[in-house]
Model the fold of this input.
Amino acid sequence: DSSCLEQKKMASTVSVSDKEVEHRNLSDNLSGVSAVSVSDIPTLAFPSISTADFQFDIEKASDIIVEKVEEFLNKVTNARLVLVDLTHRSKILSMVKARAALKHIDTDRFFTFVGDITQLYTGGGLHCTAIANAANWRLKPGGGGVNAAIFNAAGPSLETATKERAGYLSPGSALVVHLPSSSPLHKKQGVSHVIHVLGPNMNPQRPNFLNNDYKKGCEVLREAYSSLFNGFLSILK
Ligand code: AR6
Done:
């Protein structure tokens, strides 16, 4: 099958490109770090916005991710997007990967990757210019999920740099923050920017709950990805 073919291809390749480590996990990647080449193509790694703590439907989110990725790739030639999640069992990664394949999206320019978004280079050999954060409206550290992981990994300078730019975020919008070179995330992982994004919230326990209104929810999720990808574009320029 295709995964078998991919394995064979990898075994016979001396220098493994970033693309070929797609859908592998962190422990697999760790053993192969030295063989992985570093790509200079500007790359944005992003988690699936709103589909965990914010409880957004993953089928609907997958459609929106692929739609927005396609739109971005049609506009920009020299950049890559990578959807990241923590485990091989990630449903969102599988769904997005399947939909992207159906639409024949170039796997050099968009692929899925299993790993911790805060350790993509040291853990997976994937060099990313920017990473996206599924933030909360207060732009506060903590709170669990990818937000807590990114603020922890970046150290206090991310909170300071964020607060210099904005006090809060409204649903569907994004905020680009330059990471000081002293931040461990910049120093160790090569990430120069964090882009905070606030997606739609379907969880009654969290602020701005949309009460199952998926018409509004899908609209806000589309806006969130547009804001995120436009934010990435602003870094490229
Ligand atoms: N690396 C990669 N992906 C991750 C990581 C990580 N370290 N941690 C989580 N994910 P979530 P939301 C994936 O809940 O649904 C926060 O508390 C996860 O598996 O972080 O937008 C904020 O403060 C999922 O696929 O974000 C907000 O209040 C994706 O990241 C709220 O949660 C998003 O999961 C935002 O909720």
Observations:
- The beta strands are 43-47, 80-85, 110-114, 130-134, 174-178, 193-197.
